[in-house]
Amino acid sequence: MTALSEYDRLESSGxxxxxxxxxxTDADSQRREVIVSFGNATIVLSDANDKPLAHWALPAIQRLxxxxxxxxxxxxxxxxxxxxxxxxxxxxxxxxxxxxxxRQRPKPGRLRWWxxxxxxxxxxxxxxxxxxxxxxxxxxxxxxxxxxxxxxxxLMANIKxxxxxxxxxxxxxxxxxxxxxxLADGSPPQLVILPSxxxxxxxxxxxxxxxxxxxxxxxxxPDVAAGYIIxxxxxxxxxxxxxxxxxxxxxxxTFTLLTxxxxxxKVLAAYAEQLLTSPPPxxxxxxxxxxxxxxxxxxxxxAYGLDHTGETTIDLIEADPFxxxxxxxxxxxxxxxxxxxICEE
Length: 345
Fold this sequence. Notes:
By secondary structure, this protein is an alpha+beta fold. It has three domains: 5-104, Pleckstrin-homology domain (PH domain)/Phosphotyrosine-binding domain (PTB) (PH-domain like); 108-142; 144-340, no CATH class. 49% of the residues lie in helices and 14% in strands. It has 14 helices and ten strands. Strand 3 and strand 4 (52-57) form a beta hairpin. Helix 3 crosses helix 8 (242-249), helix 4 packs across helix 10 (265-277) and helix 7 (223-238) crosses helix 11 (285-294). The longest helix is centred in the middle third of the chain and has 35 residues, at 108-142. The chain is rod-shaped and about 130 Å long. The relative contact order is 0.09.
């Protein structure tokens, strides 16, 4: 079969030159009329007696004068032979075959571009999806406690612009510190009571837990405030408090914090506002109950503090680890009275 079956019987005349002028003898360089026909993946040049003079492989044929007439071909890019064809049907056939062959040839550059494109796309995906998260977690993991406390204090300073100064009193502050120690499993949190701003409770980097004054003023026992403290401690264990801060700060601020230990007050002010307006993330009830048990604290008062009807917190009530026993008191009566009046001075 030939390259295209529709050209099986196609023939035309042509002028064949064995070598261009100036490269061989005059006899060799004379143009010679030949018959051009299609063979098996070749075109065959024959004389008037049907004697084959040359076979040109179709995949290698080159055109020397694209778009001009008559068409001039050579058997490959380094060849010295030429073939001049005036027959339009033959020219069209050769061009059609050359185009088909060109499309079917492997393109090494294309594979290289695909590989390069895949690499660039993969790098971009890493930069967009993996790098920010990896940088945030790495920064949080290497930041020392001193810097965490510094960031927490800066956040608290921004919050106090809205909430007012923290409540303090000689005996009330002592009672608050005693409550922190009583609930601690290791280093006690730094408890801060604010007159407004915080809805109930929230936590900051550096071990700070902020409490609304109503948690100690509006309830008859410290167990409610203790429950909020336990819940915030669990939230800080579930998610490093620096992670949401750095996620909101962005890649540049996170990198600056990692390399210089500094973060702009503008970023901290924006995050402080977010803390005061965003609801706290939900907690797994079973894990929370385990924390109450570890802290030797009842969960029922906290459950009613969240929902005075108990309908939405029934699990905390029914599974209270101290429903049938009395744990050690959180504070003495005198300490609790002093804590309740901490915002009065």
